[in-house]
Each structure stands twice: as C-alpha cells, then as structure tokens.
Give the backbone structure.
Amino acid sequence: CFRVNANNVSLDLKGYFVTGDRNSASDFGIEIKNANETVVKNGKVYDFGKNIVVNGTYNTSILNVTLYTKGNFGTGAIYGLHAISCNYANFTGVNVTYIESTHSLGSVGAVILLDKCSDSTVEDASGVYVSEGGTAPSEGSFETPSIYLVNVSRSTVTGATFIANSTASVGGIILIQSNNNTIQNATLNAT
C-alpha cells in the first residue's frame, strides 16, 4: 500500500485505516526501506501478511499504531511489525493482534520481529496471538513468538504486554544471537 524510500518522511495516519485483502503473506501495509529519519504514527494497519516492514533504516519511529492480522495467508511468515537492519529505531505504542485462522504448519511469524537491529527501543507495546484453527505450532516449538529478537544488540524492550491464546505453546520472547539487550517490565501470559 504505502512504500517510503525517501529520507525525512512523516506519515501521520490521523486515526485512519490502511486495509489489506488477507490473501498473501508477502503483502505489506507500510514498507519503509533504505529511508532515514522516517516517522509513521497515529493509525491502524489491518490484514496484511506484514503490516509494517522497516528495512535498512536509521532513526525510524513507529508511534501509536494498531496492527491487526487475521486470515488465511497459506504458507509464509506473518508479522505485525517486521524490522530488518535498522539502527536507532523507536517503536512506541505499537499494539498488535495476530489471529491465526487457517495458517499452515511450517509457516512462522511473530507479533513483533526485530532482525539485525541495534540501539533500538520497543516501548509500551502490546500483542495478542490467538490460534483459531489450522495447524498450530507443536508444543514447545515457539514458531510464533510474541516478540522475536534475532541478531539484535544494545536494544531495549520495556513496558510490553503480550498474551498468547492457543492450543500450542506459543508466545513469549525469543532472543537468538542477541547481546547487550534490556528487557524490563514485560508481562507475558499464555491462556
């Protein structure tokens, strides 16, 4: 829908919705790629395989957005917020609901994924993961974590609340090859 690839862009959604068609894991609502000093704020992004993608950025902010995904996306990774190779990113007030309705086993995803990011902040974020059907991840596999940090350094997750409601053991925070990070005041619940 929206692709930002210029520096110093501010996209204020002013409470409006950006809505997808729920048919592909590769669809995105907003993509910020190789753009610095970018801000996306105050809106809702619904029903994309990847609601917001931040890729190759410096000093990007995602503020006060609601991300919601529900649908049959087939196979492929589904993310509320997917940040790749970002530095000094600020994700504050990001609220994600990820409802897996008929997703196939072998697909992975996360409410929030940070991959190869440094010196970034996830603050006052919330996420809900619900499995309504399809083949849920197997017990203990954590194929759909609430927050997934891969190759992340010197970053902070604070004031985060994540809830997983599923027939399998999903949810939680996963760190892979990540160091010097701080996680504080996080609430994780599985029901």
